[in-house]
Design brief:
Structural class: mainly alpha
Strand content: under 5%
Shape: rod-shaped
Number of strands: 0
Order of helices and strands: HHHHHHH
CATH class: Mainly Alpha
Largest sheet: none
Helix content: over 70%
CATH superfamily: LemA-like domain
Number of domains: 1
Distance between the termini: 86 Å
Number of helices: 7
CATH topology: de novo design (two linked rop proteins)
Radius of gyration: 26 Å
């Protein structure tokens, strides 16, 4: 009788071990994928913060242009075209921001699984950054604009946002690489495949991956 119980127990143990192993692997991969989702939400949040600041920057500059142009017109009776460069820089920045918002919305809040998708997001965000740098460079020629309290505050907020974006990207890369490496290993790959877990794209190494890009705000 004891022999029969031992055989049954051994048989049940053999059946349970693969199930337990599967559950443990599944839970581990879920935790790693959740880490990727959390890291991506931080990337999204900081990109959104930048996109929220862009209209405020554009509005600040546009208000300055309108006030200065109206003042000049009232004094001289002529409309100055000396603000054309500022207007063009504002327009390009607003267009870049619109494109970046479209690229993020296309992902539906999920981390990209294709390098192409992440390249589109990164590329559109790079255009926003270049647009901000261009606008700030043009603003160098207008001391009254650069010295205004609102403009100085926005500059500081934008610089802080770039630092946060850089940190969020690095953390996302770490989480994505950890998850990607895990689902390639056996027997993890079997569990991942059975549960539809896909590789996550991550930011490729470039200037922004190693340090925050300066906005030349000084």
């Amino acid at each position: 009788m004891n022999n029969i119980i031992g055989v049954v127990f051994g048989f049940l143990l053999l059946l349970l071990l693969p199930v337990v192993a599967w559950v443990l692997i599944h839970n581990s991969l879920v935790s790693k994928e959740e880490a990727v989702l959390t890291a991506w939400s931080q990337v999204e949040s900081n990109y959104q913060r930048r996109n929220d600041l862009v209209p405020r920057l554009a509005e600040s500059v546009s208000r300055f242009i309108k006030h200065e142009a109206e003042t000049l017109s009232a004094v001289t009776g002529q409309r100055s075209e000396s603000y054309a460069a500022l207007r063009e820089a504002v327009s390009k920045l607003q267009a870049a921001q619109a494109d970046s918002s479209d690229a993020m919305n296309a992902l539906g809040g999920k981390p990209p699984t294709e390098d192409r998708q992440l390249d589109e997001v990164a590329g559109s965000q790079e255009k926003v950054l270049l647009g901000m740098k261009s606008l700030l460079a043009v603003a160098e020629g207008y001391p009254e604009l650069r010295s205004s309290d609102q403009f100085l505050t926005l500059q500081a907020q934008l610089e802080g946002t770039e630092n946060r974006i850089n940190v969020a990207r690095l953390r996302f890369n770490e989480a994505a690489q950890d998850f990607n490496a895990a689902i390639r290993k056996m027997p993890n790959s079997l569990v991942a495949s059975a549960n539809g877990m896909q590789r996550k794209a991550y930011f490729t190494a470039d200037e922004g991956a190693s340090r925050a890009k300066k906005l030349n705000l000084d």
